[in-house]
Amino acid sequence: MMLLERATTLPKFTVYKDALIMQEEAWNAYPRCKTVIKCPYFTKFQLTIETVHRADNGQSDNVHGLSKGQLATRDVEIVDIASSARDYWSYVVSSSNTDLSKFTSAKTGRGPLLEGWQDKSKPVMTAYKLVTIDAPYWGFGYRIENALLLGERALFLESHRNCFAWIDEWFGLTVEQIRELEQQSDSLKEELGRPTLVKSVEDFDQRLLPESEDIYSGQRAQLST
């Protein structure tokens, strides 16, 4: 089990190894995909990611068909795969070094992705992702939700950056070849995952919202020791 040291204003608590087990269910019916992640130990916890792919530059509105109440509480964020911004979570998901502003595909001639590429590139596609997190646990549920949102954002950014950066490796593949690659996804997830040690609530909070590249570099050095 793992013992987390909490702030003096909050009680200490113990997390057993079973609490680290996650169950993932996924449905892929392009152009729609859905992933649901649950934790058997925390039965009320659920992370849902719903994706709709559209051949546009991100101008479609309410592609998930949300109600007025859901739209009122929704936060919209544009994730640009050409962005060079990096933070702690980029390191956690294993950030690549490919500069898409200088990259050109040898097979397709697509790229580089310069400023305003969304309105200039043809063809172009947007992945509309709806992330819903429910962790109704007093004292730490809010921190879990924030951590997962930041982590998922970094994962979305990196996976879609790689999708474009590796275009010469997958462009022209047959359906059978793609299915074979999907079967290898479990080993790929293990390769990308990097466990980190959180010693206290203060340490956890500091890693959630790095304010600068200097903080990111310092955390990387700390983790490597």
From TrEMBL:
Native organism: Prunus persica (Peach)
Indicate the transmembrane segments per the record.
Answer: none
PANTHER family, per the entry = PHOSPHATIDYLINOSITOL TRANSFER PROTEIN, VIBRATOR, ISOFORM B
Superkingdom per UniProt: Eukaryota
Query: Ranges for the Phosphatidylinositol transfer protein N-terminal domain?
Result: 14-185
The GO terms describing molecular function are:
phospholipid transporter activity
Q: Which InterPro entries match?
A: PI_transfer (IPR001666), PI_transfer_N (IPR055261), START-like_dom_sf (IPR023393)
Taxonomic lineage of the native organism: Eukaryota, Viridiplantae, Streptophyta, Embryophyta, Tracheophyta
Name of the featured protein: Phosphatidylinositol transfer protein N-terminal domain-containing protein
